[in-house]
Design a protein that fits this description.
By secondary structure, the chain is α+β, with helices and mostly antiparallel strands. The protein contains 6 helices and 12 strands.
């Protein structure tokens, strides 16, 4: 009797799970990842804020680099003291103005619905005063759907702040320029980065780190950290330096919301009969950006062992030369391989200049190293 009833209950449970799954998991229903804590209306403001923070950092960092070189070339004062002062006041990251930076924005939502562990059907049968038989059925069901929206942007690292059109036309009191970052460029770039400007000049919502420092200023402050093992006073010390090649930052916000409900019935025959249902939604918002230096490609190539320190010499070129058989005037040609060595480069003309306070050559070097072979560039992958 109970064997047949158990089989019937199992069949009913399997059928119920199949029906529920077919209703929840559907390729024709999508959940917009821009619903929740980061909405579609907020995304344009987020993208503009990231762009403005990075461009402000590029300009302030570029001026720091110029001031750093000017300080160590200062003819007045002690050379060593000038260098220490330059490192203290004008540490910079050597951003390559000839490359693009990258910004990733990843919005993901995970919706989960199912039965909880409290779902149980216990059928009790008293066989005698000493024995009771209980048939327990605890079905489980979970349906999880993931929806992800991914944007990949490129940003010029030689970008400059552009003047706002509000200089030429007036805006309403609560209206800002849609594109420009500041409506007044006659302000120190360092002050712009640190938000030390009058109210209303910034035309975007600042991104605050630890609630106290704008993102552009935070990046400038990190220059001191990454430069501690890079800036050396002489080229001989540069042989043991660590070269900052690429900055990568990732910020992720994860929020979850859920609901758990349960109903149970207890009787002489069923003790208990309970159903628990759960539903939850988890949203992950991730912002990632890269800042590339001149050695960014070498740093990535070094992971696969394809980056070299010295530039390899050009190899001979193999060519096919057609020559007449048996000399000039004979019919037919023969083909043979010859190696043509590259023509020697002309010796550079060295002009003697009057001795001046020089800059360590590593600060001006943008081309050291070589990739032996191209490294694999993986496209941005969805977050896990």
């Amino acid at each position: 009797m109970w064997g047949g009833r158990g089989v019937r209950l199992r069949h009913v449970a399997v059928a119920a799970i199949s029906i529920l799954c077919s209703g929840c998991a559907s390729p024709f229903f999508f959940h917009d990842p821009q619903l929740g804590w980061v909405t579609a209306e907020q995304v344009p403001d987020v993208i503009k804020s990231v762009r403005c923070e990075l461009v402000t950092y590029y300009e302030a960092n570029r001026l720091r680099r110029q001031n750093f070189i000017a300080q160590i070339k200062n003819p007045g004062g002690d050379t060593s003291q000038n260098f220490k002062l330059a490192v203290k006041k004008f540490s910079y990251f050597d951003v390559d103005d000839g490359q693009y930076g990258t910004i990733y924005l990843d919005l993901k939502v995970i919706d989960t619905i199912g039965t909880g562990s409290g779902t149980a059907f216990d059928n009790k049968l008293i066989r005698s005063s000493e024995a009771t038989r209980v048939f327990h059925l605890g079905p489980t069901l979970q349906d999880q759907n993931t929806y992800e929206l991914f944007w990949n942007f490129a940003i010029r690292q030689d970008a400059h702040l552009s003047p706002s059109v509000s200089n030429a036309q007036s805006y309403a009191e609560n209206e800002t320029d849609q594109f420009a970052c500041f409506n007044n460029l006659n302000v120190s770039r360092e002050d712009m980065a640190r938000n030390n400007v009058p109210s209303g000049i910034a035309q975007f919502k600042r991104i605050w780190v630890n609630g106290s420092e704008p993102l552009a200023a935070w990046l400038l402050d990190n220059n001191h950290t990454i430069g501690s093992s890079y800036f050396t006073e002489t080229d001989s010390e540069a042989a043991e330096q660590i070269i900052p090649a690429q900055m990568f930052y990732n910020f992720a916000i994860q929020t979850s919301a859920g609901l758990d409900s349960k109903i149970s019935i207890t009787g002489l025959r069923w003790n208990p009969a309970a159903v628990e249902a759960t539903a939850s939604s988890q949203q992950t918002s991730s912002l990632t950006f890269y800042v590339n230096g001149p050695k960014a490609q070498l740093a990535n190539g070094a992971k696969g062992g394809t980056a070299t320190i010295k530039t390899a010499q050009p190899k001979p070129i193999h060519v096919i030369i057609d020559r007449p058989k048996g000399g000039i005037g004979q019919q037919g040609v023969e083909k043979r391989f010859e190696e043509l060595a590259p023509a020697p480069s002309p010796k550079p003309v060295i002009k003697r200049k009057k001795a001046t306070r020089s800059v360590p050559s590593y600060l001006l070097d943008k081309s050291r190293g070589q990739l032996l072979s191209p490294f694999v560039i993986s496209p941005p992958a969805p977050s896990q």
